[in-house]
Structure formats: structure tokens, C-alpha cells
Amino acid sequence: MKRTVVFDFDGVIHSYKQRYVSAEVIPDEPVEGIKEAIHSIREAGYDVVVVSSRASSTEGKKAIEEYLKKYKIQVDDIKWEKVPAICYIDDRAICFQGDPSALLSQIRSFKPWNKK
Fold first, then answer.
1. pLDDT range class, residue 88, cuts 50, 70, 90
2. Which SS3 state, helix, strand or coil, does residue 4 take?
3. Which string of b and e fits 80-108 if b means at least 16 CB within 10 Å?
């Protein structure tokens, strides 16, 4: 398996402080330190793929490309569907710990990092 790490775009790379307007509008600055983290991950030999529903349209994918270029964030690819990876970095994920009985409680109490 290729050593791929998938990053969600909104809330992980794009700080996503303002409400979603459209796939083409990306108003907020990057999360502090994300450029350096991605650089380190790529330097360690991993491919970094950005996955975002924004990329399901040509305009949205282009907006992500322009955003990454503007902030000099280098990635290996941009997709709109999940790709095989060794891990996913996402602000709206619950890490499954092997206990299905805990899931409903985790869902009910879940808040992304930037909404706490």
C-alpha cells in the first residue's frame, strides 16, 4: 500500500471559522502550523491527499488549488472521494476504539475542535 495520509480540507487545513457559503468561497486563513505539519509529513515520505466535498465540482477543486497555492501548502493530490490511506485527519471524526456501545454517547457529545 502506498503511504498516503488523507487530510480533510475544512476545519483541518482551512480554519473554517465562518459559515459555509459555497464550494468556491474559502474565506479563512489556514489552521496555525498546518503548512509546516504537512511539509514534515511529506518530507517523512508520505503522500498527502486532500479530500473535500468542495472538490466534487470543477470550481470547488480549483478554489482549493488556489487556496493551497496562495498559502504555499504543497500536497500530492486533491480528491472529493475517500482514497485508500494509512490514516485520515479530520475535524469531524470519532476514532473507533473497538467498543460499539460507546458510539451513541460519543456522537451525542461530539463537537469539532473549533466549536468547543
1. very high
2. strand
3. beeeebeebbbbeeeeeeeeeeeeeeeee
Q: Is the pTM of this model over 0.90?
A: yes
DSSP single-letter state for residue 50: E
Distance CA 42, CA 47 (A): 6
Residues 31, 107: Cα–Cα separation, whole Å: 24
What number of helices (H) and strands (E) belong to the chain? 3, 4
Q: What is the pLDDT of residues 47-83, one digit of tens each?
A: 999 999 999 999 999 999 999 999 999 999 999 999 9
Question: CA–CA separation, 3 vs 52, rounded Å?
Answer: 19
Per-residue CA distances from 86 to 23, 24, 35, 110 (Å): 27, 29, 20, 24
Q: Which three cell numbers stand for residue 34?
A: 498546518
